[in-house]
């Protein structure tokens, strides 16, 4: 829908955020009834202040695409709203040089009792588009939103995702100067997301300045020259996107991974199907306590996970290495024990299992304390939370210790491939 390259000769930065802090005032109680209001005369209302942003300082140069990433509640949307002038900073200042188009809270202003077509007309009029152009664009907008057949359907009959799609399609009719985008990719199916990404690519080619809040790190990696990492309202880092994503994934404080800290209830566990065939039933019935069983001649005392930097961490990027260190105590000399792991997904799909016997490793006789590492040099899993089962057993399957899905790690997809796992493939042009 957009043509032509924006002519930029001005060297002034597009956005200058200087020392911005934002405090929200949260009342402790809400007075709704007359009685509560009369009572309130004698007890003044109490408030709590919450600092959502603290001394945020950065500059977006013209034509740059800047990502804002961080955990939930870190202040990303608040910062974007302050840049868009929807919210005022408590202290500090924001200077914007250019016409800003915020793709935030898309669809605010849409009327539930108007049809899709009527809403496009109203929204486009507010955006300052001429009647002639609106009439010319309507089919394109509906087509982009994938809603051509709902032209005369009232908005209230659409899902919230459909409404955002319609609003996005309507909003991209005018050429932005500085574009602020908040999580628009979170709505819509893969086709719609792809269309949005194509639009952003087009904007980028035209030199439009973009600030892009997203939890989708692969989209941030693809579009953003620079990225700002927020944590608890403060800037942790600002710089080259790949370095900041690495900082986000690996720089955060290591999560606790001890079994007792895992909020994975036994009732949630989908049973021990993966154990069947690998586990002696009688042994299991006798010994099973809270997802753990075995005769404990060898006890698995701890399991630690290490990232590519050698830091204890259970959060890694896809494609990076993960080392699982199994600490054990053999209470008597045990000949040729076998150590194994099973990795299963959050929804109990068995992803991978191996053990020292399968790998042809003879451990000889073990006794006392020891540890063994399994190194995954290239994590092929793409995204999600994965549980690890760790076991020590004999070659003929007498279980010494079995910890069923007691540990977990999270893989963050920072690339562009989709699905559960990265299947090695190559394209050949024939
Ligand atoms: N109007 C408000 N009044 C009080 N607190 C607010 C208000 N708006 C946001 N907050 C709080 O400020 C903090 C930052 O919120 P914000 O929405 O900016 O975070 P975010 O990083 O965008 O989170 P998410 O990734 O979940 O969208 C949160 O703790 C939120 O509860």
Number of strands: 18
Small molecules (ligands, ions, cofactors) in the structure: adenosine-5'-triphosphate
Low-confidence stretches: 1-8, 252-287
**Category by helix and strand content:** alpha/beta
Helix content: 10-25%
Number of domains: 2
Order of helices and strands: EHEEHEEHHHEHEHEEHHEEEEEEEEE
Give your account of this protein's structure.
This protein folds into 2 domains: 15-29 and 45-244, P-loop containing nucleotide triphosphate hydrolases (Rossmann fold), CATH 3.40.50.300; 293-412, abc- transporter (atp binding component) like domain (Coagulation Factor XIII, Chain A, domain 1, Distorted Sandwich). The longest helix is centred in the middle third of the chain and has 16 residues, at 190-205. The chain has helices at residues 34-42, 76-83, 116-126, 131-144, 160-171, 190-205, 217-223, 241-251, 281-287, and strands at 15-27, 47-60, 65-70, 91-96, 100-103, 178-182, 209-213, 226-231, 234-240, 292-293, 298-306, 315-317, 322-335, 338-345, 350-355, 365-376, 384-393, 399-412. The protein is globular, with a radius of gyration of 28 Å. With 430 residues, it is of the alpha/beta class. Strand 6 (178-182), helix 6 and strand 7 form a beta-alpha-beta unit. Helix 3 (116-126) crosses helix 4, helix 3 (116-126) packs across helix 5 (160-171) and helix 4 (131-144) crosses helix 5 (160-171). The protein contains 9 helices and 18 strands. The protein binds adenosine-5'-triphosphate (ATP). Residues 24, 26, 50, 52, 70, 72-78 line the site of adenosine-5'-triphosphate. Residues 33-257 form the ABC transporter domain. Pfam families: ABC_tran (PF00005), Wzt_C (PF14524). InterPro entries: AAA+_ATPase, ABC_transporter-like_ATP-bd, ABC_transporter-like_CS, ABC_transpr_TagH-like, Bact_Polysacc_Export_ATP-bd, P-loop_NTPase, Wzt_C. This is ABC-type transport system, ATPase component.
């Amino acid at each position: 829908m957009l043509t032509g390259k924006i002519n930029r000769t001005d060297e002034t930065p597009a956005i200058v955020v200087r020392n911005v802090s934002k405090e929200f005032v949260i009342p402790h109680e809400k007075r709704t009834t007359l009685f509560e209001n009369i009572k309130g005369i004698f007890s003044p209302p109490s408030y709590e202040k919450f600092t959502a942003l603290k001394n945020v300082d950065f500059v977006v140069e013209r034509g740059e695409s800047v990502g804002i990433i961080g955990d939930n509640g870190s202040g990303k949307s608040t910062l974007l709203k302050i840049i868009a002038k929807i919210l005022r900073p408590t202290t500090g200042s924001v200077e914007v040089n250019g016409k800003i188009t915020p793709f935030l809270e898309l669809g605010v202003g849409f009327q539930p009792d108007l049809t899709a077509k009527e809403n496009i007309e109203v929204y486009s009029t507010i955006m300052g588009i001429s009647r002639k152009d609106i009439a010319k664009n309507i089919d394109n907008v509906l087509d982009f939103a994938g809603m051509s057949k709902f032209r005369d359907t009232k908005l209230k009959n659409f899902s919230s995702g459909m409404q955002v799609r319609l609003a996005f399609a309507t909003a991209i009719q005018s050429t932005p100067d500085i574009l602020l985008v908040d999580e628009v990719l979170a709505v819509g199916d893969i086709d719609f997301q792809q269309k949005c990404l194509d639009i952003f690519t087009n904007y980028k080619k035209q030199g439009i300045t973009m600030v892009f809040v997203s939890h989708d790190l692969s989209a941030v990696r693809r579009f953003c020259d620079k990225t700002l990492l927020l944590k608890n309202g403060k800037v942790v880092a600002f710089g080259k996107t790949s370095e900041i994503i690495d900082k986000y994934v690996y720089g955060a404080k290591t999560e606790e991974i001890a079994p007792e800290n895992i909020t994975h209830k036994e009732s949630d566990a989908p049973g021990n199907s993966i154990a069947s065939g690998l586990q002696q039933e009688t042994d299991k019935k006798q010994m099973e306590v809270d997802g753990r069983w075995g005769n404990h001649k060898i006890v698995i005392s701890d399991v630690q996970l290490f990232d590519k930097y050698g830091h204890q961490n259970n959060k890694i990027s896809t494609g990076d290495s993960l080392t699982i260190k199994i600490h054990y105590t053999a209470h008597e000399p045990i000949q040729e024990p076998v150590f194994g792991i099973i990795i299963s997904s959050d929804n109990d799909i068995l992803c991978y299992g191996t053990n020292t016997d399968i790998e042809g490793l003879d451990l000889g006789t073990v006794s006392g304390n020891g540890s063994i590492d399994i190194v995954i040099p290239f994590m092929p899993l793409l995204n999600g939370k994965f549980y690890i089962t760790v076991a020590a057993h004999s070659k003929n399957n007498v279980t010494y210790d079995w910890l069923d899905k007691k540990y977990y790690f999270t893989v963050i997809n920072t690339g562009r491939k989709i699905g559960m796992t990265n299947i090695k493939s190559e394209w050949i042009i024939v």
